[in-house]
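Journal club prep — side note

Before the paper discussion, L.F. wants everyone to see what a predicted structure for a comparable chain looks like in token form. Sequence:
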Amino acid sequence: MTSTRIGASPRRVGGHERVTGEQEYVADIRLPDMLHAKLVTIDCAHARIVSIDTSAAERSPGVRLVMTAADLPQPVPRFGPQFQDRPVLATGEVKYHGEPVAIVAAETKEQAELAARLVRVEYEALPAIFTVAGALDPAAELVQDPGLRPDDPLARTNVFREHVIAWGDLDAAEAGLAAEAGLVIENTYTFPMVTHFAIEPHGFLAAPDGDGVAVWSSIQHPNWLQKIVAGILGMPLSRVRVFAPDPGGAFGGKQHTKYEPLVACAALRARRPVRLILTLEETFQAARRASCEIRVRTGVRRDGTLAFEDIEANYLIGAYVDIADRVVSKGSYPGAGPYNVPTVRIIGRSVLSHTVPSTAFRGFGNPQVNWAVESNLDEAARALGIDRLAIRLHNLARRGDAFIPFDTPADGDWKQTVERAAAAIGWNSPLPPGHGRGIALGLKSGPTTGLSYSTVRLLADGSAILYAGTSDMGQGARTIFAQIVSQELGAPLDWVAVVMGDTATVPYDQQTSASRSSVLMGNSVLMACRSIQAQLRTMAARLHEVPEELISVDRGIVHLPNREVPILEILKPGLGRLGGELTGNGESRKEGDMSHPLSGAAAFFEFNCTAIEAEVDEDTGDVTIVRHVTVSDVGKALNPLQVKMQDEGAAIQGLGHTLMEHYIFDATGRIRNLGAIDYRIPTSMDLPLELHSDIVENGDGPGPFGSKGMSEGSLLCVSAAVASAVREASGAVIRDLPLSPERVWRAIQERDTAK
């Protein structure tokens, strides 16, 4: 029989429901007397709203509600996880293509869609800013009203915030390098604007609930959503109940509040449940990853030793801040990579624009800077005639090195990871013509703060119920937590019920993000189980008249001085004729540090090495990934199969923004490739011919049994590894993503022209 304990890969908890279609997502929920909603938008990226005529829509059959900003409390409430700048509905201006100006609710979806088309919006089109250069132009129009930031010296610019991370003396480092006749490699790289493209589009449902409101959402942060809705509606938290069914994919796009406040206001106004399910095209206009332009100056000595990194990254974050400024600060912070670099200066800017607000996306801002810095390191190696693998190993931080002076020291044997990837790709073996290899390293700071509560109930028959606020969005959290309970309390895995997704039922969890679930919530669940084990020790001491200090409980077994018995043999007589249960509560807390640039040091680092073999067709520019190797330092794989699934999924997702994915804008800032036909993502036809994933386990993480978070690592450095392989195969130098066939073909033509 397959083991269900830690380190094994039992059948996934909830997996049957997912593959059979029995799982209920937000779009599957139907409430009595429910209205269907449709957003009203205009086909413009930036416009002044002159008037909105809802009369025809209100007369349309089945329509029960048409709501504009004028129907909301004045001034229109604004919200956001970092900065409260996003209005519930557009007020005065439309700031991006797809921003809603009204919402229609009707008896049927079709009636709502028809009525939405009948709303007449008179508007004046205004110039739109949708590039970094346009936003930073001193003459550019301001995206955000300066009145929203009255005490901010940057309020009259399109820079929301500038983050500077530095150590060492850059001027002295440059002077010293010049004296040694070292090299300074300077280049500019661009990273595209992409969407999350989760299988499940965003879905929202709200209903009056007594003197409060209930909200259903495909969201990663139920407690955060509860706080925002309560604040907008002026209700206590106890009157806002959030149901968060397992999302059908999220990747960060469902991390924060989008249209839940709007739907809640509509439901309370209509006094009926209101349901809004976005189309895929509308989802493109609801969330995306920040694009970025990165200038990198890498100083390197003749022997390949890094002297300094000077990085300037301008992230285009969109019309509203959402969580994007945190993405910029945390994504640029470890930009110099996992290397011992004595002097570093990193400037990361959050740049506002008339584009869809960007939000969290797997990798959280790190892939943007990593693409540039790792590619520039390749340029340095080529200029010096040094092997690209060798220059990385030469500078790589060793365990315990303070490679970022004011943060967590290097927490893994990263050299082991790199060497394993290099061996798997056959780094020094011969290659056929038209083939090339690339290698890159990726690093991401884990959570810098955290707070997770859990409750475990051990029932009289030895079964257990776990209550946890984590959202299982595909990462397999239910399975891992059930495995911990199963191992610690001896219950078969199918005897462990996991309850999630209801703020009125489960205890508080700060958030599901930053690869924190296994570590922070995992530790909380482990503590709850250990609390029950302590109660069992007390119970066993009483039953067997043995000093409690001579008893231990481990992996479902009670160890008495002279024998070992299953937990159930203590639990049943200990509870007695009245029965009952044992309850344990767990809390995992990582406090912040306001003196730290990120308000806290990393709980752990995600570290990955990706190696690529690619073939380039010089006649078409088409790139074939012949072999893709990804190796991650995971501490301890709680469930090896799920680790492999997460690792490989992230790797393929990284190929998306590397080879094909990007928003296309017209001259006025409107998105031209909304939807699955015109926006390409990797399909089975684009997968690597060979995909090899491996892990390094040294049990050196802060999570249960030495685990670390790992579900983002293999995405971080895909772009640099692929681009390096493409250059080796073809000589084509490309510093702009994606590496589309046309872009590769044009680079090859430039190569030939330069000969």
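L.F.'s comment for the group: The domain at 291-447+596-754 is CATH 3.30.365.10 (Aldehyde Oxidoreductase; domain 4). Keep this in mind when we get to the figures.
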